Amino acid sequence: MVKILIADDDSGKIKHLRDVLDRIPEIQSYDVSQDVISAKKYLSRGHYDLLILDLNLPLRAGDDPKAENGINFLNDISRESKLAKPFHIIGLTAFEELKDKFAKNFSDDLWALIKYESNNNKWEKQVTGKIEYLVQSKRSLQNPSNTGYNFDLAIVTALHEPELQSILNLDGNWQDFKLPNDSTEYHKGIFQTTKQKIKVVAASAPQMGMVASSVLATKMIHYFRPKFVAMCGIAAGIKGSGNIGDILITDLSFDSGSGKINTDSNGDAKFEPDYRSLDLETDLKEDLLACKSKREFLDEIKRKWSADSPDTELNLRIGPLASGAGVIENNRIIDEIRGHNRKLIGIDMETYGIYYAVKHCSKPRPEYVISMKSISDFADSLKNDKFQKYASYTSASFMFKFMTEKVSFNES
Predict the structure, then answer these.
(1) pTM to 2 decimals?
(2) Residues 6 or more apart from 62 whose CB is under 8 A from it?
(3) What pLDDT, in 10s, does the model give residues 263-280?
(4) Element (H, E) at 233
């Protein structure tokens, strides 16, 4: 966590310093330079949190040490742009006369020059105290709970085509970007309305499933600290509880594969479910129920779709949604899951993972998470891809309308 550079040519003092530093586990690394030239090379290659500087230093290896070399080096750190400036500097000298002579050079820049004595541990306590302060301040800096939200909304989809593409078709002035050491392609944009400007980041997982989507959501929460997380895309509906294209709002999410496999009296495997559900925030649900009853946005979204669409009107369905590990094309499996939740409105492979990631991530957690997927099939033998683009479109369009017109991101 903390990087330190020691500039000192006294082997006894260096050993003593090493003994002190080796007792502090948070020290990431420390380098030792025994002359000014090599110390400058270290500072030109990278940043250090702390420089422990002896005054009586040789300019280069083999030269005689001079106190002026240490002071000139201290001044050069401020003057030379090629040198990375350490966050803190401690002068450490074994000579009382040098401490008296050059104390002002350090105090003028609010650094400290302290006396080293091999038989007195006062300097050890001072150096250790400074390093512990650095550790605590860096830990505080790296703790995202000490900062606010960077993005208003993070949108997660399971697939790039057609789900994420439907998001990117929205008016957002999108920009593609990547982060160091991360293969995911992210997209940032702004949903602009007369009332507010919503900062948005979106991405798709590399594959379907709870694990992939949960990992992606966790990364996006860590990197971008969004206030709101939304899952968009397609899902399987329940026959009799919705039509193709209907938007499914998950007010209760559960893992349909959670439970125990026992053996019945005939020796056959028997699955005993143990569902642990995660719920939608109540205030969000109230707003969505109002949209449903007033049919806000729904007719407009259906009317603007120019390609093939089903003959049924577009509706909003709010209820439980089950997430499982595999694609289902079997009515019997659907009936078994529905038998444990008669109000089931749909099945997918991701929503529970998104809800879980948001509910259990490190702070600051997003204030809200919602899954608004649309029905593209009914998870039976007739399952096909015919209406996947339409379902992705209705999901993305309703998300856009709801976020821009019903959610106020300006409220704390």
Answers:
(1) 0.68
(2) none
(3) 777 777 766 767 788 899
(4) strand 226-237
